[in-house]
Amino acid sequence: MTRDGSPSLESHRWGCAFHSRHGALTEALHVYVQEGLAHAAAQTAGPLQILEMGAGTGLNAALALDWAQQQGRELHYMGIDLALPEQEAWEAWRDSWPQRPSWMEKAQRIRDAWAAGQRFVEKGLSATYVPGLASEVSLPSGMHCVFYDAFSPTQQPELWTSDALAPWLAALHPQGYLVTYCARGHVFRAIRALGYRVEHVQGPPGKREMLRASVVSHR
Ligand SMILES: C[S@@+](CC[C@H](N)C(=O)[O-])C[C@H]1O[C@@H](n2cnc3c(N)ncnc32)[C@H](O)[C@@H]1O
């Protein structure tokens, strides 16, 4: 359980939680939906293309699709992960929510599709899971928002270098944004060294700042 009463999973492999211990749901809504997706959506009227590094439980995917549906926006999500949580672990996570959230039905259907090797499709919405290593998968282009949700630089320093971040930034639409919960100085500098604009944005409760990067300054 995280501090806002929403559950997370702990990875034995990396010895850390999938989400912020300050609040899994609060962080996901703040970093990825509000400061990422909604911010990017304000720049374009058409269908939204979203890419995520670390699909995990599908929490960010379900929240993104749920937000798009509420806004009446078309949205196509693609999440990369080397492996999804095992079924038993995912069900334990689902069953640990104190009150079943309204978007959980969507999360369940996304998870079922992914576990069956299929793409989730619903009117104007889709969610695709691509298994593979972040450094090896070939990434799409024209993404309006990239959710960069790797484990932290302490656990996975190799995923926070300029070399690792470059293809995820290159996937951006010219008016797209990459957002991440991580606001460490070396990550900020790694993004800036690649020639992108990067800013500190107020973080969710428990974290002072997060990062948002864009191709050019268009505000
Ligand atoms: C912080 S969790 C992501 C949580 C997820 N966004 C969610 O909503 O539940 C990080 C994820 O990155 C995945 N991962 C770690 N290293 C990876 C790599 N090198 N390539 C692809 N996925 C990786 C892990 O399997 C894990 O699911």
Keywords:
6 helices; 219 residues; binds S-adenosylmethionine; 8-stranded mixed beta sheet; globular; alpha/beta; 32% helix
Helix/strand layout:
Blueprint: E1 10-11, E2 16-17, H1 24-41, E3 48-53, H2 59-71, E4 75-81, H3 87-95, H4 104-115, E5 120-122, E6 125-131, E7 143-148, H5 162-170, E8 172-180, H6 185-193, E9 197-202, E10 209-214
Parallel strand pairs: 3-4, 3-7, 4-6, 7-8
Antiparallel strand pairs: 1-2, 5-6, 8-10, 9-10
Helix pairs in contact: 1-2, 2-4, 5-6
The structure holds S-adenosylmethionine (SAM).
Summarize the structure in short.
By secondary structure, the protein is an alpha/beta fold. The chain has six helices and ten strands; from the N terminus they run E-E-H-E-H-E-H-H-E-E-E-H-E-H-E-E. It has one domain (23-86, 100-214): 3-Layer(aba) Sandwich (Rossmann fold), CATH 3.40.50.
Q: Would you kindly provide a written description of the structure presented here, covering whatever features stand out?
A:
With 219 residues, the protein is α/β, with parallel strands linked by helices. It has a single domain, classed as Rossmann fold (3-Layer(aba) Sandwich). The chain has 6 helices and 10 strands. The chain has helices spanning 24-41, 59-71, 87-95, 104-115, 162-170, 185-193, and strands spanning 10-11, 16-17, 48-53, 75-81, 120-122, 125-131, 143-148, 172-180, 197-202, 209-214. It has an 8-stranded mixed β-sheet, sandwiched between helices. A two-stranded antiparallel ribbon has the order 1-2. α2 (59-71) crosses α4. It is globular, with a radius of gyration of 16 Å. The model has no long low-confidence stretch (mean pLDDT 96). Residues 18, 54, 56-57, 59-60, 80-83, 133-134, 149-151, 156 line the site of S-adenosylmethionine.
